[in-house]
Amino acid sequence: MAITHPFVSGIADEANTALVRPTNWNANHTIDNDTITYAQIQNITVTDRILGRSTAGAGDIQEIVCTSAGRALIDDADATAQRNTLVLGTADAVTFKTLSAVEAGASAVIIIDGLNPFVRFREGGVNKAYVQWNASPGFVDFFSFGSFNFTGTAVGMNVTGVSDSPLRIEADSITIKEVSKTATSWIYNRIINGTGDLYYGLEGATGGTVFSGTTAYGAFFVNQAARDVQFGTNNIINITLQSGGKFGIGTSSPGAQLHTKAGAAATIGEIIQGAASQTGNLTEWQNSAATILSKIDKDGYLTLPGALRFLGFVSSAAAPTTTELPTNKDLAIHKDTVLGTVRLSFNDGGVIKSVTLV
Fold first, then answer.
1. Omega before 137 cis (within 30°)?
2. What does R_g of the chain's alpha carbons equal in angstroms?
């Protein structure tokens, strides 16, 4: 520390160097380090102050407020003692055993400010999870290195005050979008209770991965348990698929592979409607080898085993002709409008043969 007298002498030094001369007096004077005590530097106005400078830049010494916690930290002998005061661990990364931060007049709050800030959770030095704000595109990432559990009474997304379900999501467009991590892998959801086990989703590039019989990229809806799958409207079950494969429409207890039950007396039980210029059969009955046994063709004619085609009821003044029974083995019931008789007529290789029934 150097001190210079403000007065500068104008008298020249004497020749005797054993004397204190004017240039000696005007030169810098030093003070021993232990000569001046803290009390001699500056008087403190109140308690709980330390000397320093809080204002930016060089300047005069200022009094800085120092709380009891701050004084305790300053009083610590070394960094280890300071970490103990702050309740920190000994590792390089700061580990808070108990962290409390209170904002006056509000609830407890912790603020982490930075570019893409995040909080990482570890156990025994092993990463377990983290929460991060992702500035681009602007959302919060919740990432777990293991399973992820949220414990609470209810979770709401884009909604507050959830009380009707554990999870409620409100949106004006897509509510949930599930995307496979690869373009070819399967993806599905699963709902389980005591006995039922429902799967629904999309098969991957290789069929039969999730269940036997699923096709590549096919959508599936499967109850893995030996239980029914049912669909309904207006609070009523309308369709039932039993575990054995029986399919019921209008009944929950189908008695055949396909069982339809009209819901009212005026309801038509089944309609098979052909396309414009229909060429295929409307209905076929086949054996296990896929051989057609009987069919109803595009015109509604019934063909029985042996190529016998029943054309229904023909009414005319004369016996049916090959125009009315154009194909070999065509069969029809014919009413003779002149005689009033009813005949069974048959095309036998281009010859119409008839027998009177009534």
1. yes
2. 49
